């Protein structure tokens, strides 16, 4: 029950208390109000779901018998440009044809006044529901009530209630009908709003689609073209192009009209792959659109952007090529060397031969490490990477790796030093895996630092992200998810550095940064990140072109 | 004794080919990237150059075009010695004036050396 109805009800009860003399009369009124309210609500709910004006009016006239006595009710609705109309009668009881014609004449007169022109009877299509016409009935229209139908002051029809009985439809009792129509009015207005909102939603969806969309009618007239298509085909922005202009833009790649015809004739989606326009690679999809009776309404043409997919394929291909190269080089050495030794067994005994044997050994080691890296990266990618934590002092590991990599750094006259490494960094970690992280980061730093540069490794316990001393003031990483207390290990180099776009793809698989001029699989950082995260730690990077890069990673303290 | 300039960024491969070539009494000088290759083609005046393609700084194709554009080094025969066999690279190398194109993973060090012998014994081009 609506609050208003409830209030009326309460008010009525108050009245009853006051005037006990009027008790019976009031009670009847209250009952009538409750009944009306319930019917109103039911009608309201039903028309609220109707999407069609005629069906909404059907609902109303079917419900009227619950409120008013009548013989015939009906509505007359104008169609299109208001030169035609449809008329629907609901016969609650049998009447003769003359009765209906009389009601119709009154409805037409009323309509003519509101729309300012008449509609000839032959332009009116009529339908009947309810009981049958019976010429045996002799009664004429004795009571008639006409209500003009309008939405937002726009007249579109008239509703009629007619009875054989006289003296009906006067004054107050018609209030309820006005209420119903007002409700219908609101519902239609709301409905129009919903429809236009949905239309807007659809339009903005099509407009915002990254894929190009064309909708054509059955005669190849352009109904919809979205901005993505305009951009893709470099069409003028100010006017809607024709299908001929669109087809002309594609003429050297695909015969669009032939593809549309093919789609319509075969009644299937036609697919045209690898359509390159500008720098975009698309899959062209053309689909016929038919209504429920299989009548052709038009076609939809979709330019599905597959550039990103192609880019991914390219990255994968490049990765494969790089992998092949990384394996081929050491294998070429192993095969070439064995070939040499087999030809001349003396070579192996000579100092040069001994060197070559050591090279073979290291080549085999390189390949094995590569295969292990691939396996690790695959496990990390699949979420199946496992670590084995034991208690230990991270300071020892850091110092050990600095000493180990000093030799490699010295070859490039790079100084690799441990600075600010706290002595007691006891926690739980996977010893081999943390050594692997440090190894990956150190060999990267050596690789990307010029001769004479410096690499500094530090390790401290931090109690909050605020304890981190960032190397650069700008580009401070987001430490929201950083778990503390933790051991923070940082590794700073005076290398080439990176810009923001390079930093963003640093930890992604298959991507060694282009143009670094360095060999490598690019898996090292992916694995380092995987190991750090398996420990519940975080890895960050700061870099500045030509100044250097600092990697930071944490291992939670326990 | 002929002098060979071997340009390759892979230390292990340099070692392997150097052993093979010095075993045949050639003098071998090495370069570790394209820039070194271009510089040594002029300063060392080698009789032949073995040139890798994928190298840091200047790659082998760019190095080849510079070697062939320089008056001092343009007459030195260059054999490409690489693990990349894409058709466009091969064509590019030959059009820039390479005398041969060898794939490291296909030829043994001995076969590579025989190719060097063959090129060195061929009469110099008329131009």
Please, could you describe this protein's structure?
The complex is a heterodimer of chains A (about 550) and B (about 130). Chain A has helices at about 5-20, 25-50, 55-65, 95-115, 175-210, 225-235, 245-250, 255-265, 305-345, 350-380, 395-410, 430-450, 500-505, 525-535; strands at about 70-80, 85-90, 125-130, 145-150, 155-165, 210-215, 220-225, 270-275, 280-290, 295-305, 390-395, 415-420, 425-430, 455-460, 485-495, 540-545, 550-555. Chain A is of the alpha+beta class and about 550 residues long. In chain A, a hairpin with a 3-residue loop joins strand 16 and strand 17 (about 550-555). In chain A, helix 2 packs parallel to helix 5. Chain A is elongated, with a radius of gyration of 42 Å. Chain A starts with a helix and ends with a strand. Chain B has helices at about 10-25, 35-45, 60-70, 85-95, 110-120; strands spanning about 5, 25-30, 50, 80, 100-105. In chain B, helix 2 packs parallel to helix 3. The model of chain B has no long low-confidence stretch (mean pLDDT about 90). Helices cover about 45% and strands about 20% of the residues of chain B. In chain B, strands 2-1-3-4-5 form a 5-stranded parallel β-sheet, sandwiched between helices. Chain B is α/β, with parallel strands linked by helices.
Strand-helix topology:
The complex is a heterodimer of chains A (558) and B (127).
Chain A: H1 3-18, H2 23-49, H3 53-63, E1 72-79, E2 84-91, H4 97-115, E3 124-130, E4 143-151, E5 154-163, H5 175-208, E6 212-217, E7 222-225, H6 227-233, H7 243-250, H8 256-266, E8 270-277, E9 280-290, E10 296-305, H9 307-343, H10 351-381, E11 390-393, H11 394-411, E12 415-421, E13 426-429, H12 431-448, E14 454-462, E15 486-493, H13 500-504, H14 523-534, E16 539-544, E17 548-556
Parallel strand pairs in A: 2-3, 12-14
Antiparallel strand pairs in A: 1-2, 1-5, 4-5, 6-7, 6-10, 8-9, 9-10, 11-13, 14-15, 15-17, 16-17
Helix pairs in contact in A: 1-2, 2-3, 2-5, 3-5, 9-10, 10-14, 11-12, 12-14
Chain B: E1 3-7, H1 11-23, E2 27-31, H2 34-43, E3 48-51, H3 60-69, E4 78-82, H4 87-95, E5 100-103, H5 109-121
Parallel strand pairs in B: 1-2, 1-3, 3-4, 4-5
Helix pairs in contact in B: 2-3
């Amino acid at each position: 029950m609506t609050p208003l109805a409830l209030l009326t009800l309460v008010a009525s009860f108050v009245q009853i208390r006051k005037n006990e003399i009027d008790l019976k009369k009031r009670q009847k009124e209250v009952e009538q109000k409750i009944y009306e309210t319930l019917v109103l609500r039911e009608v309201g709910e039903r028309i609220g779901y109707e999407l069609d004006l005629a069906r909404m009016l059907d609902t109303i006239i079917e419900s009227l018998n619950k409120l008013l006595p009548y013989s015939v009710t009906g509505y007359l609705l104008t169609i299109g440009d208001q030169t035609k109309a449809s008329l629907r009668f609901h016969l609650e009881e049998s009447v003769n044809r003359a009765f209906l014609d009389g009601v119709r004449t009154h409805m037409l007169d009323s309509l003519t006044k509101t729309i300012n022109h008449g509609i000839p009877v032959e332009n009116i299509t009529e339908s009947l529901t309810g009981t049958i016409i019976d010429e045996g009935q002799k009664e004429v229209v004795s009571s008639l009530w006409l209500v003009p139908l309008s939405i937002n002051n726009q007249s579109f029809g008239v509703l009629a209630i007619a009875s054989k009985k006289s003296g009906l439809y006067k004054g107050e009792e018609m209030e309820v009908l006005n209420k119903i129509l007002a409700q219908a009015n609101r519902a239609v207005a709301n409905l129009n709003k919903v429809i236009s909102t949905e239309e807007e939603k659809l339009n903005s969806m099509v407009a915002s689609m990254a894929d190009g969309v064309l909708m054509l009618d059955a005669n190849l007239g352009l109904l919809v073209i979205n901005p993505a298509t305009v951009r893709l085909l470099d069409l003028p922005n100010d006017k809607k192009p024709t299908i001929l202009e669109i087809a002309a833009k594609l003429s050297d790649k695909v015969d669009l009209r032939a593809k549309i015809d093919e789609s319509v004739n075969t009644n299937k989606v036609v697919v045209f792959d690898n359509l390159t326009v500008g720098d975009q690679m698309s899959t062209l999809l053309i689909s016929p659109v038919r209504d429920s009776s299989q009548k052709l309404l038009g076609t939809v043409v979709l330019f599905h952007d597959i550039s990103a997919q192609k880019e991914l394929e390219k990255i994968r291909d490049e990765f494969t090529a790089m992998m092949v190269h990384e394996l081929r080089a050491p294998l070429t050495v192993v095969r070439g060397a064995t070939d040499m030794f087999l030809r001349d067994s003396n070579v192996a005994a000579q100092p040069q031969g001994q060197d070559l044997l050591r090279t073979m050994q290291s080549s085999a080691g390189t390949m094995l490490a590569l295969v292990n890296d691939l396996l690790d990266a695959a496990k990390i990618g699949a979420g199946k990477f496992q670590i084995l934590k034991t208690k230990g002092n991270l300071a020892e590991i850091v110092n050990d790796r600095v000493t180990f990599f000093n030799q490699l750094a010295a070859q490039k006259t790079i100084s690799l030093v441990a600075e600010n490494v706290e002595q007691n960094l006891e926690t739980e970690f996977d010893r081999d895996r943390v050594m692997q992280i440090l190894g990956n980061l150190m060999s990267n730093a050596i690789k990307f630092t010029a001769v004479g540069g410096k690499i500094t490794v530090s390790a401290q316990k931090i109690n909050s992200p605020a304890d981190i001393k960032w190397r650069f003031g700008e580009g401070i990483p987001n430490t929201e998810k950083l778990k503390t207390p933790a051991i923070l290990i940082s590794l700073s180099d005076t290398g080439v550095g990176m810009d923001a776009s390079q930093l963003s793809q640093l930890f992604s698989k298959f991507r060694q940064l282009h143009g670094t001029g360095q060999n490598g699989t690019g898996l090292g950082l992916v694995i380092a990140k995987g190991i750090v995260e398996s420990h519940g730690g975080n890895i960050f990077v700061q870099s500045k072109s030509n100044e250097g890069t600092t990697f930071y990673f944490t291992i939670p303290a326990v | 004794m002929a002098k060979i300039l071997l340009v390759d960024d892979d230390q292990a491969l340099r070692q392997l080919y150097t052993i093979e070539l010095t075993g045949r009494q050639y003098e071998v000088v090495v370069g570790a990237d394209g820039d070194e290759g271009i510089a040594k083609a002029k300063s060392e005046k080698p009789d032949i150059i073995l040139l890798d393609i994928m190298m840091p700084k200047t790659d082998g194709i760019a190095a080849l075009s510079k070697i062939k554009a320089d008056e001092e080094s343009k007459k030195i025969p260059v054999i490409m010695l690489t693990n990349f066999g894409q058709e466009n690279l091969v064509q590019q190398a030959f059009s820039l004036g390479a005398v041969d194109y060898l794939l490291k993973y296909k030829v043994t060090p001995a076969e590579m050396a025989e190719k060097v012998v063959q090129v060195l014994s061929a009469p110099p081009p008329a131009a």
